[in-house]
Structures are given as structure tokens and as C-alpha cells.
Amino acid sequence: MGSLILCHDRHAAQPYEITRIHCRIFTIEELCYYLCNNLYLIDYTIMNEQLCGWLDEELGMDRLASELRDVLRLHGSVERFVLTILKESKIYREPEMIRIQNVLEHLKNQKDIERQKYKGDNLLESGEVEEAILVYQGILSQEKDDTVDDKFYGRIYAGLGAAYGRLFLYQEAARMYDRAYQICQDKRFIKPYLYASYKYMSLEEYHILITKQDEYMEVNAQMRQEIDEIRKHMPDETSDAHLEKWKRQHRRSHS
Fold this sequence. Notes:
Elements lengths: L15 E3 L4 E3 L2 H10 L11 H9 L4 H12 L4 H12 L4 H14 L4 H14 L3 H13 L8 H17 L3 H15 L5 H11 L2 H8 L3 H20 L2 H16 L4
Antiparallel strand pairs: 1-2
């Protein structure tokens, strides 16, 4: 959050506690920081009268507290509640506010478990790979949510596969992609599965693997053809660089 502007000096004598994660907040900056880093998980522990009272009594932000009470009284959305806090605090610059609004709009009608996956996907996309792994693993460690289908969980495994691949943990990546394919039966997962398998297996083990299914043979042949095409159309001095680019693309493949 490089665009954070420290412009408030009021420090609460009594902190506001976010019971969900046992987090204690003393300033408006801390509240905004929490909101912006947990947009995917905002719930009743933030959107309630207790927070309004805390802002009023502890931080002297009576106007903000009044606006938030209006949102509650009119049964306004979580998105409006959060944006009211961020806009009134004037802590974040316009580009960051636009990003936050876009994320909130995307999350508006999502289930809690879908929000968690979206968080993991965004962490992975932004290069925070270890954090993404923790989010994905957290979803899988929870009791199964029957409001989503099995393919949702298959895509979680695919996200883990992509994350492990970025860390060059190819055996773990292959195992995750295999789970994803077995659940979803989506052929898009075969290519990264075979690539990760090739990176950690011996040639003999890999050959045995691809002969197990016709789909594996087909995808392996396609991968070899793609590599041959790259080498054929590129000068010798640049072919290796383009081949590495192709490898990186398939390393990052996930849904």
C-alpha cells in the first residue's frame, strides 16, 4: 500500500477488536489498512453499530460515524460501507480508490469461499506466491462447502499447481495439477501437469507416464511440436530465449 497517506493523529484509548482474526485497531489508518488488505473477507465484524460508536467516541469522527449509521439504517451494501470509510478518511489516493472499487464490485455477489479464492488468485497474479499458497491451502483445509461444485475445488488445486510451479517445486505442482484434472476433467490442466512432471521425473518415468493415457500422448506431442516450431522460426541466438519464454508461460498456466 505505497499510496497510504498518514494524515490523522488521533489514537484510540480503547481499541476496536475485529473478532474474526483477533485484531486490535487503534487508529483510522490501521482500520483502512485492514479494510484494503481484507476486502475479500469483510463481514459483520466490521459493518456494525459497534464500529460506528468506536469511530465516534474514540476517534472523534462523528460525521463519518453518522454516515455509516445511515448506511446501516438503509440496509446498504458492504461495499458502500467500506468506501464511505475510505473516502471520508482521505487516506488513499484516487488510483488506489479506483482499484478498491473495482475489487469490491467484483466481489459484490460472491460467496465467502469464492472471495477467498479470488484473494488467492490475485496474490498469485501479483507475485505473492507463498501468500497465495496459504490462502488456497486454507480453503482446502476447511469443511467442504456444498454451495460450490467439485470443479471449484479442482480450480483451487490448479491454483496451487501454478503457485508451486513458480517456486520450482515441480513434483508438488504436478500432483496439484493431476488432482485438478481428475476433478475437473479439463484438458487445459494436462499441459502444465506434463510439463511439471517432465521437470522432476527421469526420462524413463516420464515416458511411462505419457503412455498411460491417449490424452497425455496427444498433449506431449503438441508440446514437442510447439517447441520445434519455436526453434524452426527463430535465429539460433534467440531460439533459446524464446524457448525459455514458452516454458515460463506453461509454468504459470492455471485457472
